[in-house]
């Protein structure tokens, strides 16, 4: 029986850890990737694309360890149409109970131009590489990158070749987010109609969001016969991102009357994952984002508030609880105990062990002493900044005292621990943040350019924590940093240092040979 036999079942393929991580600046650490993979597995994702094993030693190790720890999900590794890529992907995913190799090549005229392969040469390459992958693994996915800009006749030919060579899933990527819903559906219909053997495999849809149509295009492809949706949490991904998992899953749930397809996703885990991915990737979710945005269930106008109080369905097509969101966001205060904190953190996507709980509880108490009310977002900010994440960082902020006010220049007295050794400096600047950044720069020599500095209040009130986001670029590498504190300047120093730590991780990542820019 092929996966395709479940005509009403749509497989959810999450690529947050591969395509999502390709967003400039969204690099995640090894442990963060493992945690997210475990959460995706628990949530019921069918296939987790865990990374691109040949891209770096770090990617390889993450895919291998995710495979080792996997429970129900198929674990997939990406590979170009080259034997060493495929071998490396297999080396990493073979540890999974259910491994998959995903290999791809750009088939549109533009991509054929780059690889300098004729149509016939490319067909030969596909035949050989898919067969090679299939010899290693029973579960092989093949993608013609830029499928939506590939000539239909040629697309049929390459898809047929991949099926004959042993591919079990054929993914049709809209790599540049160019298609529209009707066209997306017609493409799948055309392939199902014209390609021999198409009824024996699963068609997948992989849509980028450059024109804001990724979710609509994915759903249209499903209505036309695709049975796997490729997506990411929060729609994370290169440029404008990918189809968002929460959007397709909730659309299929809420409009099951017109789209009668099932997924195996436990939707009550959506919010936890969304927050987790936002926190570790450094990409906050926009307030008005569908399903998981802060305002998705907020009702501002009097008419709406009145209607929702009388009957939630007047202005809500789903309930906050459906995605794991509490009706009230106010959670804890200084009298809350450890058990309450543990259960709240679990709800927010953090399963804390005893030692972690001890550490977080101390930080929570310190925050509750400074802030009257501690909200979910405060706890998430606290988690992000927790020593649990920072203790392995090479650079850490140990002390900061700033003199500021109407009399210039402002100055910052800063102690950083760098590779375990404390260094102190006093620097001046045009304002407290400028002075603080100048002090960091004196202690950590680098030529990274500050591309973005942003401050958000985590919640309301003058005692609110500030979350600061910093984006640095150095030699084409981008790293973002975030930190929160009730003191905006302390948050700024920590965010800057967080970005520098991430930049160092990026420097260590080595690129594979050849051109990966087009992926
Ligand atoms: O967008 C794309 O084409 C991809 C492929 C590697 C599937 O991410
Ligand atoms: Zn993609």
TrEMBL record:
Entries under PROSITE patterns matching the protein: AIPM_HOMOCIT_SYNTH_1, AIPM_HOMOCIT_SYNTH_2, PYR_CT
Pathway the protein contributes to: Amino-acid biosynthesis; L-leucine biosynthesis; L-leucine from 3-methyl-2-oxobutanoate: step 1/4
Pfam families associated with the record: HCS_D2 (PF22617), HMGL-like (PF00682), LeuA_dimer (PF08502)
Keywords: Amino-acid biosynthesis, Branched-chain amino acid biosynthesis, Cytoplasm, Leucine biosynthesis, Manganese, Metal-binding, Transferase
Residue span, Pyruvate carboxyltransferase domain: 10-271
InterPro entries reported for this sequence: 2-IPM_HCS-like (IPR050073), 2-isopropylmalate_synth_dimer (IPR013709), AIPM/Hcit_synth_CS (IPR002034), Aldolase_TIM (IPR013785), LeuA/HCS_post-cat (IPR054691), LeuA_allosteric_dom_sf (IPR036230), LeuA_bact_synth (IPR005671), PYR_CT (IPR000891)
UniProt family annotation: Belongs to the alpha-IPM synthase/homocitrate synthase family. LeuA type 1 subfamily.
UniProt function note: Catalyzes the condensation of the acetyl group of acetyl-CoA with 3-methyl-2-oxobutanoate (2-ketoisovalerate) to form 3-carboxy-3-hydroxy-4-methylpentanoate (2-isopropylmalate).
Subunit structure: Homodimer.
Protein name: 2-isopropylmalate synthase
């Amino acid at each position: 029986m092929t996966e395709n036999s479940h005509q009403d079942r749509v497989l959810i393929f999450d690529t947050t850890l591969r395509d999502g991580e390709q967003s400039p600046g969204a690099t995640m650490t090894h442990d963060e990737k493992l945690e997210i993979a475990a959460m995706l597995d628990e949530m019921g994702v069918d296939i987790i694309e865990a990374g691109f094993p040949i891209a770096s030693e770090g990617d390889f190790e993450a895919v291998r360890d995710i495979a080792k720890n996997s429970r129900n999900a198929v674990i997939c590794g990406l590979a170009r149409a080259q034997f060493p890529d495929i071998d490396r992907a297999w080396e990493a995913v073979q540890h999974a109970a259910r491994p998959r190799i995903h290999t791809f090549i750009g088939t549109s005229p533009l991509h054929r131009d780059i690889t300098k392969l004729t149509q016939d040469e490319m067909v030969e390459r596909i035949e050989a590489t898919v067969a090679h992958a299939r010899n290693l693994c029973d579960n092989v996915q093949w993608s013609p990158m830029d499928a939506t800009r590939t000539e239909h006749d040629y697309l049929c030919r390459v898809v047929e070749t991949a099926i004959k060579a042993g591919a079990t899933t054929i993914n049709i990527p809209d790599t540049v987010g160019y298609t529209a819903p009707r066209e997306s559906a017609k493409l799948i219909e055309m392939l199902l109609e014209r390609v021999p053997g198409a009824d024996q495999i699963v068609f997948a849809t992989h849509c980028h969001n450059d024109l804001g149509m990724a979710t609509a295009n994915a759903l249209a492809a499903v209505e036309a016969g695709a049975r796997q949706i490729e997506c990411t949490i929060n729609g994370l991904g290169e440029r404008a991102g990918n189809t968002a998992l929460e959007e397709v899953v909730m659309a299929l749930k809420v409009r099951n009357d017109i789209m009668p397809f099932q997924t195996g996703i436990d939707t009550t885990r959506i919010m936890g994952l969304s927050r987790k991915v936002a926190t570790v990737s450094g990409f906050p979710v926009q307030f008005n984002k569908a399903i998981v945005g802060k305002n998705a269930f907020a009702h501002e106008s009097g008419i709406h508030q009145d209607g929702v109080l009388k009957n939630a369905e007047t202005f809500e097509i789903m309930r906050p609880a459906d995605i794991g969101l509490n009706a009230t966001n106010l959670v804890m205060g200084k009298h809350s105990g450890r058990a309450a904190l543990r259960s709240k953190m679990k709800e927010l996507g953090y399963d804390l062990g005893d030692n972690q709980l001890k550490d977080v509880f101390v930080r929570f108490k310190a925050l509750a002493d400074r802030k009257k009310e501690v909200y979910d977002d405060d706890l998430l900010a606290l988690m992000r900044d927790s020593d649990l994440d920072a203790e392995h960082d090479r650079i850490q902020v140990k002390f900061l005292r700033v003199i500021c006010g109407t009399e210039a220049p402002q100055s910052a007295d800063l102690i950083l621990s760098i590779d375990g050794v404390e260094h102190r400096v006093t620097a001046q600047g045009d304002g407290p943040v400028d002075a603080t950044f100048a002090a960091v720069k004196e202690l950590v020599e680098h030529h990274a350019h500050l591309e973005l500095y942003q401050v958000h209040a985590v919640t309301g009130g003058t005692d609110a924590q500030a979350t600061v986001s910093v984006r640095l670029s150095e030699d084409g590498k981008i790293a973002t940093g975030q930190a929160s504190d009730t003191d905006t300047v302390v948050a700024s120093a920590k965010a800057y240092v967080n970005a520098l730590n991430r930049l160092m991780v990026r420097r260590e990542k080595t690129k594979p040979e050849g051109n990966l820019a087009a992926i």
